[in-house]
Amino acid sequence: MISLAGQKIFVTGCGSGIGAATAKTLAEAGAYVIATDINADGVEATVADMHTAGHQGEARVLDVCDPAAILAMAEAVTDAHGAMNAVVNVAGWDKGQPFMENTPEFIEHIVQLNYLGQVRVCQAFLKPMIEAGQGTIVNVSSDAGRVGSLGETVYAGAKGGVIAFTKSLAREMARNGITVNCVAPGPTETALLADMPDRIQEGLKRAIPMRRLGKPEDIANAILFFASNRASYITGQVLSVSGGLTMSG
After folding, report:
1. Of these residues, 32, 115, 155, 233, which one is catalytic?
2. Among the listed residues 239, 223, 205, 183, the one whose alpha carbon sits nearest the alpha carbon of residue 21
3. Residue 85 neighbours by CB distance under 10 Å
4. Is residue 115 annotated as part of the catalytic site, yes or no?
């Protein structure tokens, strides 16, 4: 069993889906989780579930597309709890549509949310981690960023950026005792996937060697590993959690 007892972990995107599952999984392992999301009701419900289960954490509202809000959050959290043991970037969103139908506003939002948000959160929280000489960053990309995805071109580009950012940051942070890794989910049972037509969902199931869609908990368990001391000698790596769909990508 992986124990995170005594660890303080900051997580984005905890209002639903993978982020909510991640917050609960890390808390179950013993961490004190600072769970954040732009959706106040969603993140508060996640933390209420954690408390009901006897686990520790708190809910905070954060828009990762707002650079000033990220800096203010990092300062407030660090003042309250000190340097984080881990920072987990889960917040993300997309809407499938042909690239030529993407508006400039849509493109900007996708890049801000799925790429720049992670960059800014890392930069905001890293200084006290560097001073402490310890910590780990876990970024969430997507297999779309590894192999591409029809109807998700800008999203795939942003998530591909997360992968390159993760590897580069890992090289830079290694001397400070900080690991930086990335989890790349495949098709997962989230609200985003639920909006897709049934025929597409069934087609994905047939294409996945394990013949099922991923569950948010599948992704959360991979994040748990990277956030733990079991992964203390692993950095700059990308772990695909896709039931084998992209094993050759």
Report:
1. 155
2. 223
3. 22
4. no
- In angstroms, rounded to a whole number, what is the distance separating the alpha carbons of residues 23 and 17? 10
Q: What's the CA gap between 141 and 155, in Å, rounded?
A: 10
Q: DSSP 3-state assignment of 247?
A: coil
Q: Tell me how far apart the terminal alpha carbons of the chain are, to the nearest angstrom.
A: 31
CA angle 19, 206, 15 (to 5 degrees): 10
42 Cα distance to chain centroid? 16
Cα pseudo-dihedral 98, 187, 109, 116, rounded to 10? -130
Rounded to whole angstroms, the Cα distance separating 159 from 177 reads 25
Q: How far is CA 95 from the centre of its chain?
A: 18
Alpha-carbon distance of 65 to 244, in angstroms, equals 32
Q: What pLDDT, in 10s, does the model give residues 153-175?
A: 999 999 999 999 999 999 999 99
Amino acid 94 reads D
Separation of alpha carbons 163 and 184, rounded Å: 9
Question: What pLDDT, in 10s, does the model give residues 84-139?
Answer: 999 999 999 999 899 999 999 999 999 999 999 999 999 999 999 999 999 999 99
201 neighbors 186 (Cβ within 8 angstroms): no
* Domains of the chain, each with CATH number or no CATH: 8-241 (3.40.50.720)
Here the tokens at position 216 are: 């948010």
Which helix (H) or strand (E) covers residue 7, if one does? none
pTM over the 0.85 mark: yes
